[in-house]
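**Paired protein data**
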Amino acid sequence: MITGNAATLLAGACFQVAVWYFLTFLMQQGMGYPAAATGLGFLPLTGVMLVVSTWVAPRLLDRYPIRVLVATGSVIAALGFLAQWLIPVANYPVTVLLPSIIIGLGGGLLNTPLATAVTQGIDNRDAGAASGLMNTAKQFGGAIGLAMLATFTPISEYQSPFAIMAVLIVAAGLAGLNGVDFSPIRAFTRTAYRPADPVAFDWIKLAFVRDGSAILLSEFGKRPVRFGDAVLLSANVLCGIEPEGHITATVVYADADYVVDQVFWQHASVLRDRLDAAEFASTIYTEPAQILRLGEDRAGMLMPWLDELVALSAESRPVETFYRMQALWFSVAHVIAPFIKTSQVRTSSTQRATAAAVLLHAAPERRWSVTDLANEVHLSKSQVGRLFVEAFGKSPIAYLTMLRTERMAALLRTSDAPITVIAQEVGWSDPDFAARQFRRSVGVTPSNYRALSRVRTQATG
């Protein structure tokens, strides 16, 4: 939390006051803009930062580790500040607009993960104090940053302060990374009030419902969850949520390779090595998306352990807390293990992404065949198929279907385009086939999903 607030202070030194102050001098003294035009000139920076921090970054947090977004945001913001420093005064699009868009993108990606890193795992009783401390650090950083830059920078040098801001924002990113937990187990308690689109990510996820209820949309169909339930999701499995008012859950993220290592030692008497363990695990765990009906008494027994896991995750001291976190994880796993369905059918995996998956992510709308994909990565059809099954527990075409379904869900929620048009946009020329694939992955038809989304939006809006 200390390093997170230090990063917030450094980011505040750039974004709280200084960037607006020196952009004002740039536009008014350097470019001769009147006050009204200067105010309008701030709109791109404000708009981009608002959209990215409130809409894009929260969705990325569900798919990527905090450290990835912190590093990416700080680098992009630094590039924007350097561009603002180096580009000579010319016209608005070149001198102000382009750097403002880059700065806004980086600032939006950085601010939300930093706030999450500072406040994650804080007990509800301390949430107000933690939030107040974070805001104080931000405001204090803004005051100190402006005072420092204004003191040591002549008024005529209205572009040079942006070079210093680039250094400060990189320092903020490094401080933020130092405070991010690199443990193979992380736990957070979160409350959701609004629907979330189906997303897939690389970690194994266990969500324990603490309060409220919701409808989940995943490979198990459309299913309700409430207190006493836990949701188990393997890596690269889509799942969306429709809160019924609100839902509070403690979410435990476990690194897939770490879990496979535990499977190896659990069954060491019959397994030769960890490669065997990966295949064994993906063989016995048949359902990559499961709802575990633990019951209220058993779920209540887990809550103290989960609270401690959340608190230790927030401390960001993986070396010092390693053994205690393992003990808590094993205690939780011991309770839920009897409720996890197993068999001899392979349906999931815990390996990392391969180069071929990057191509599908980049252009899911392309009419891919296994032959096309194999040619792109210079492998045979059998090799690329084997790599995909090892990496994701899915064939290349099944993985492509997951990507298209995820994009289709987002378009159904955010646009009014006909379902036929959306299906073609994500890569399916046959709308009936698209509807069948969507229902198989999400649990409802595209039209029902759109209707549910609109009802929830109206109810929460």
In short: The longest helix spans residues 92-119.
